[in-house]
Amino acid sequence: MDATANLSLPVIAPAQAQKHVTHNEALRALDAVVQLAVIDRDLTAPPGGAAEGDRYIVASTATGAWAGQEGRIAALQDGAWAFYRPGEGWLAFVADEALLCYWTGTAWADVAGAITTLQNLALLGLGTTADATNPFSAKLNKALWTARPAAEGGDGDLRYTLNKEGEADVLSLLMQSAWSGRAELGLVGDDDFSVRVSPDGAAWTEILRGDRAAGEAVIGHLRVGRDMVQNVLPDSGRFNGNANNTAFSGIAYAAPTYLSPTSGAGLAAHAKFIHDNDDYGGAAGALDAEVKALVEAIRPPGARRFGPEWYVIEVTQKASGTMSEPVDIGGTLYGLAFTTLFTALPRRLTFAYHVKVKTGTAALTLDSGRVVRASRDGVAQPKAAQTIANGDGWTHICVHNVPNQYGYAYDLAQLKLPLSGAVWLALPKIVFGHVDLDPELGVLMNARMFG
User: Fold this and answer.
1) Cβ–Cβ contacts within 10 Å for residue 78, how many?
2) Which of 142, 215, 245, 438 has the most Cβ atoms closer than 10 angstroms to its Cβ?
3) pTM score > 0.90 for this model?
4) What is the CA radius of gyration of the chain?
């Protein structure tokens, strides 16, 4: 053997004369390639002013004293350039780039580019030092995350998944100024999404909460889906006429302009809720039995004597003939008895009302083309026709509608009656947006109510 297998170091042969020459040559090779750090890897010719021991990686298309030595390690030793052929996997630190590179067998490549997997790191600091409290730390001015597109083997999506151990723990994004908290959003001590702010990092005020159970947004102490909606009907659904909608008591019935009977059906006043009524300790008059049943369904004891007055109306389908938009349910035809709001409407609106069957049955049809979702007594309903009977008592219907292709809607209630069928209808509400209105809501005020 004339040389070692890996570094090609010359070996001393038995009975060799001048053994020191071979030994010194091996030492020079070790000095050149062990703990390899080169000054540059982009030069094609020797630099001027090179000092003894300087090392370089020879770049492509080398010239002069380096001609034909591309990719090799050039070391100035004893005033002359010596060249060493790298082996696959050799590492070299390139000083002018402050990076580590390796020999692939055909070229020098950056080590960083070869790292594709890091597992179970205890600490990672980017531009700063990580510690036990902050095992992942970064000091930088910008950060970019982008989804891997399908063309590169991804699916085009980017989703962060953050998880905490239990409901009482914190999962949040904390924003600080001069290392003092100013805003925080996330799941802070419970499982409702919240946003809170602080003037000093110590006192915090919640400004927004997403109630996960109710599916509602709470701003401060206001629930957007309950406290910030207004009935757009001119009389707040009290059936007391447009000109009288600020009256609290002593109201008279007026046919609603927003409900129009169809094809011979009829709308008529049945009875009203009386402010300070006799049934619950007042002296202004007794309640009709159906009005009383509805009041007891929507108001707790102790809250049934007073309140803004409103009417229950009776809707009666004609006795014979052809009905508008008939639907056959179990062999019985149901048709429209009234229409609603022939006027341009927003893209999302909610119609809610209380209904009780007087004669026959009624049908909740839930047109799949114009109904996004619906609930009955607060319970979500499938988009399928269903009947309502007298034995169901007062029923609360809430329908999330969209207008037809012309921007109108004539069947917001989605309610149909058979021939000679009749229902009592009370407290209709139309609000913008899709809102799950509480079945226990009575008169929902509008912008003009009470002055």
Assistant:
1) 8
2) 245
3) no
4) 42
